[in-house]
Structure prediction request, 337 residues.
Amino acid sequence: MPSDVALSVLEHASVSEGSTPGKSLRSARELAQNLERWGYKRFWFSEHHNMRAISTAATSVALGFVAEGTSTIRIGSGGIMLPNHAPLVIAEQFGTLESLYPGRVDLGLGRAPGTDPRTMRALRRDQTASSTFPSDVQELQAYFEPAAQGQSVTAVPGEGLRVPLWILGSSLFGAQLAAQLGLPYAFASHFAPQALHEALRVYNATFQPSDQLEKPYSMAGVNVFVADTDAEARKLFTTMQTAFLGTLRGSRGLLAPPVEPSSLDTKWRPGEKEQLDSMLRYSFVGSKETVKPQIEDFVARTGVDELMVSTMIHDPQARLNSYQGLAEIFGLEGPNA
Prediction:
């Protein structure tokens, strides 16, 4: 495994059947503590709303809970859906986090709503807000700079803290914006892989250096399920497959226990399996011996600097075992390798 490729985790504090959001958030913090010990670089929470299985809607609040229980691993958003928020409010929230946990905070930004149209209206989100995403990113960035002479509105806390921004995306738009602004770029290939290679090509080819970043820095999302055997890992993977199948059908529920993979064969409607396989193309499932060459090939083909790993596993101990196995594949030696 390339020693210069960093390893990080995207977490949703998923609520499994039989659990609660509170238990899920505490389990997520325990996960972050173990990831820190094993040498993972970052621990990011996603922002989603009105989804029963995801506990991280109040992203900055949840990040503070994790940051308080850790000491070296970077914590951040993967990402804040900026059109849902005023840039000043996000600058204040992440300025607060940076003030409490200096040098450990990342602010990943996306332009999708992270929810459905009815919830968008409940969030008081302007339907056209995504069109101003580039200027909103720059406004937010400015709040983290020292105040200019005569500036009447500042982020307190936030001003002068220069919290590092990331652009998240699954299309060429985000790649172009990240390159134009000289920001690191994270591609959501763990669920929307179609434009991965072209987006990375555009980002690397058009990158403009900035005060934050001198050269391109890219991250790609992948799903990883590691177990003692390939069969055990494939069974664990059925939890994510079932969750995404619910998303395709518009019937999201709590995270279900795994099932025998063969039992899914009777559930597919026409075209669903093909669509799901396409969405989850970059899912590496198996024993350490099986997964290692798959990830090596992915890193070689993409040239990314960092992997952001997502793992939806029903049982907390099986999830810990999977991440520990991945750390062993990478040869991490903690904190934070």
Summary: The chain is about 40% helix and 15% strand. Residues 238 and 264 are 8 Å apart (CA to CA). The mean pLDDT is 94. The chain has one domain: 6-228+283-330.
